[in-house]
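Please, structure for the following, as tokens.
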Amino acid sequence: MSSNLELLSEHACFGGLQRFYRHDSREIGLPMRFSVYLPPQAQQGRVPGLVYLAGLTCTEETFMIKAGAQRFAAEQGLALIALDTSPRSARVEGEMESWDFGVGAGFYLDATQAPWSTHYRMESYLMHELLDLVCATQPVQADQLGIFGHSMGGHGALTLALRHPGRFKSLSAFAPIAAASECPWGEKAFAGYLGSDLADWLAHDASALMRKAQTPYPAGILIDQGLSDTFLDKQLLPHRFEAACQEANQPLTLRRHENYDHGYYFISSFIADHIAHHAQQLVSTPETVTQSLQ
């Protein structure tokens, strides 16, 4: 278990609590930050949790500040958990040279190549440390967790859900990097963190992982994608994941939205649908936990 858990701030929000924490990470080997929103239902007992993975350059604060998710999490009785997007202050040469690799761009995997492999261990951090820490210190149900994310975080949500079967009960994404081994962002990250072996790349590619699966989420996966997203054709490639889901007999709702771009105006427009999607699969009787905000 991680030590030195420090509450940095706490804020009342839609009848619940928005908290920001720092702790010394065993897996990363450095201090890490994360945030938790607890809905009002958490005052009565443990609630299901929904993990959010943010995109390039973001932090544990970005989603909580920009998405407007707390209102809908409060209505549905879901806790929200957000983590940082990479280690900070690892002092790896070159980690600050570009916005799409290094700091703010951990890609939710464990690097195998030096010098990144020492601290850039985001998959192990989330799966083998942070989830346990949150469920041990917050009123969150360890066996009722969902995951979603945006862009690089959408890649992370899809790949981690498929790499760790059964750990997450529900799955969705906003504009995910859906075939990371086939786009410039993924190629740069994978070459730097994982080396040159294509098999290692495909082990962290959402579309490749889905092609090897068989209906991993029978209740369905939700993806929203803006059609005015400047990254759509070169970096995101949602049609690759759509085809993989067809091969895997995986129900997928892939909604394409005219005029919407890649940012949080897009996310905030459809966040209520994603919270409802997860609540339907995580909360046994949503009608009994829905709390009016009026």
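Residues 286-294 have pLDDT under 50 and may be disordered. The longest strand covers residues 3-13.
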